[in-house]
Amino acid sequence: MGVDTVDQELEAKHRALWALGDYGAIAAQIVAPLGPVLVEACGIGPADRVLDIAAGTGNAAIPAALTGAQVTASDLCPQLLEEGAHLADERGVDIAWKEANAEALPFADAEFDVVMSCIGVMFAPHHEQSARELLRVTRSGGRIGLISWTPEGFIGQLFATMKPFVPAPPPGVSPPPLWGNPDHVRTLLGDGVDELGVVRQSLTVDMFADGAAFRDYFKANYGPTISAYRAVGDDAERTAALDEAIAALGDRHIDGGAMSWEYLVVTTHKR
Predict the structure, then answer these.
(1) C-alpha–C-alpha distance, residues 8 and 4, integer Å
(2) Of 81, 77, 61, 78, the residue nearest 69 (C-alpha)
(3) In this structure, are residues 152 and 175 in contact, taking their beta carbons and an 8 Å threshold?
(4) Are 89 and 68 in contact (CB under 8 A)?
(5) Element at 244 (helix H, strand E)
(6) Which residues form the Methyltransferase type domain (predicted)?
(7) DSSP state of 33
(8) In terms of Cα–Cα distance, which of 83, 261, 51 is closest to 156?
(9) Interatomic CA distance for residues 253 and 271, integer angstroms
(10) Alpha-carbon distance 25 to 222, whole Å?
C-alpha cells in the first residue's frame, strides 16, 4: 500500500475539479482514440494484470479489457468511475473500478504486469509522489505506458493561457504538461526503469468551427477551464480577457477546419 501522506484538502479540490462540467463528453467525443493507442503501445493481452491510473471513464481501461486482460481502473473522482462502469457494461467487459489517489494507491507492491495512464496521472499535483507509486505497484520486468499532453502542444498551451487567470498552485505542485516532457519523465522514473521509448504523436480534432466554439465547449465541459472562469468570478473585464485569450489560442491552432493536439507516448519496463 502507498505510504506517502496525502494533502486531504488538495485531494478534495482535485476530486471536485474533475467533477465539474462533463469530462465524460470530452472523453467520448474528442480523446477516445488515445486509449487504444496506449493499449497497443503497451502490448496488452489476455495474460496481463493491468492498472489504469487516473482512468477517468475508462478511455484506456475499456480497450485494455477488450483484449481479455484483467483490468483495474482507478480514479480520484467517483462520478467518472460510475460513468466508466456504465460504459464498460455497455461494451460487455468486466473491470474493477476503484476510487484511488494516484499519489497513494491502495494496491500491493508489484501487483500489476502493466501500469498505464492516458492523460491522467499527469494531473496528479505532486509528480514525484505519483511516479513513485506508479513504479511501486508495477512488478519487476512489468510494462509502464503513459500518454501525456506536451507543454508545446495545444493543451499545454491552453494551460499556459489560463495560468494568469488562476491562483498560484500550492508549493510543490508541478504543471501537468511537464509529464509530456521526456526529460521530466526520465527524471521522475529514474533508475527504476529501463530506457524510455518516446514517441510524439498528434490527435486530430475536427469538431470546432473556430476558436470561440472550442472555448465555449471547454468552458461548459472541462473542469480546469471551468475552474479558471470561477477564479475570475464576477470580474467582467477579466472574464472578457479570458474569453478572448482562449478563443485566440483556438483560432491559431485551427487549420483547414481541424486542430492537431500533440501528445507524448512513453513506454518502458520496470527494472
Answers:
(1) 12
(2) 61
(3) no
(4) no
(5) helix 236-253
(6) 51-144
(7) T
(8) 261
(9) 40
(10) 9
For 29-65, write each residue's pLDDT tens digit. Answer: 999 999 999 999 999 999 999 999 999 999 999 999 9
User: What residues have CB less than 8 Å from 101, skipping those under 6 apart?
Assistant: 2, 6, 11, 76, 124
Q: How confident is the model at residue 3 (pLDDT cuts 50, 70, 90)?
A: very low
Q: Domains in the chain, please, with CATH?
A: 5-203+260-270 (3.40.50.150)
State the DSSP code for 177: G
The answer, yes or no, to whether residue 4 has pLDDT greater than 90, is no
What was the pLDDT predicted at 6? 78
C-alpha dihedral sign at 108, 126, 55, 205: negative
Return the amino acid letter for 115. V
Between CA 116 and CA 268 the distance in angstroms is 10
CA distance from start to end of the chain: 20
Cell (9 digits) for 160: 499556459
Q: How far is CA 234 from CA 162, 200, 230, 231, 239, in A?
A: 17, 40, 8, 9, 8
Average pLDDT, integer, range 172-192: 97
The bridge status of strand 112-118 relative to strand 197-205 is unpaired
Please give the single-letter amino acid code of residue 107.
Answer: F
Distance CA 7, CA 29 (A): 33
3-state SS of 129-173 is HHHHHHHHCEEEEEEEEEEEECCCCHHHHHHHHHHHHCCCCCCCC
Distance between CA atoms of residues 77 and 54, nearest Å: 9
Q: What is the pTM of this model?
A: 0.96
